[in-house]
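Intended use. Records such as the Coproporphyrinogen III oxidase entry shown here are meant for training and evaluating sequence-to-structure methods. They are not intended to support clinical decisions.
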Amino acid sequence: MSAAHTGPLPRHVVVVGGGISGLAAAWFLTSGGVPRVTVLEASSRLGGKLYADEIAGVPVDLGAESMLARRPEAVGLARAVGLADALQPPATASASLWTRGALRPMPKGHLMGVPGDLGPVAASGVISPAGLARIPLDHLLPRTPVEDDVAVGAFVEARLGREVVDRLVEPLLGGVYAGNAHEISMRAAVPKLFEIARSPHRSLIAGVREELHRAAARTQDAGPVFLGIEGGVGRLPQAVAEACRAAGAEVRTGTEARALRRTASGWRVETSAPHGTEVLDADAVVLSVPAAAASRLLSSEAPGAAAELAPVEYASMALVTMAFRRRDLAVQPRGSGFLVPPVDGRTIKASTFSSVKWGWVGDADPDVLVLRTSVGRHGEEADLLRDDTDLVRLSRHDLGEAIGLTAAPVAARVTRWDRGLPQYPVGHLDRVARVRAHVAGLPGLQVCGALYDGVGIPACIGSARRAADALLGGTPGTGAGGGAGQ
């Protein structure tokens, strides 16, 4: 439930955006006692980047596939909407790096690629002898001062050398943000690393090792790090929407919010749908849409916030999902998949062996192997101009070199996420604070989503909780969690 109510409840709240953030906000508002909640989703499908479907008769995720289990928001919401029995850990979490011409084990004992122990890094073969020789200089270098914010790549390179950034940090950070480590804010994207950088530790390695030990003690009996949902994480937004409707909320698709205006009693939302236009009057509005749409809607009533949102950049990417007959495979893939450092110059940035990683995918048809690749990241999106057939061909070529896959798929699907992931450059959290300061001057208006509090599923749900609590009269930020993360 949301925070204890301390003031008059809004009678009607319009939530603009039917991704997981908007739907979660609607659920928190409805369960918090708001008598009328209306969700407006411009596209024909709810869920945003959470999208479950099938390939060759096997259920799969065509968007995000897992959620961090050691934050409570996503697991709690899944249980609240009837998916408790569907939560499942990965069958295997042994990922690799495809680099220097071979699949190499992901070194254990790191914080977003920054090692706390050099032994596993040396044993993996990911870093060259020259790169390994550079890393221990971290113990001898004077402490690197970090006053406010810094790019992850710049800081780690200064301490440990370029190879650690190129072959460890980049693929891991890119897997979350589809961005460039030399542009991404350490304060926003890896807040624990930012804390270490600002601590008295002179050595980054020593600080990471100490944090990993503390984390291990905290989570000794905490269960799996990640969880999926049988049938796909994409089931979550659908279940939340159904729960909202059952509680009396209205959830519309194909309905775009075209304009937002203040009125004497609250807010007026002008909508456009295939059946025509409509005006909705509400006491409050939650905007859970990407930056460009939020900027457009806020341009009249909150021009300061609109100006801050307009330049926010997004990364585009594509997921190529393929199904193979196991009998056609000369080699059966093992492990959960692999990441690809961009420095290696491959087309694909990662591959997930879905039928191996998730028991429910493998069990759906034991004769079929489903795997997927990802293509594109911020600033490197030329391959996304290719057609679907080309992306499948290029993915198969890279998979052939990585794991010896030569078979032809029995089915293939390309899912494109244009401008799908907001980028968190240096200073991002200051921008978010300025947006929220502008919005705070407008009673009955809240913003939430991946742009503000983190791109992972729990972070998005926490952001929704923060917005709902503010409208319910609780303390903004309850349950939102700090920093980005999963």
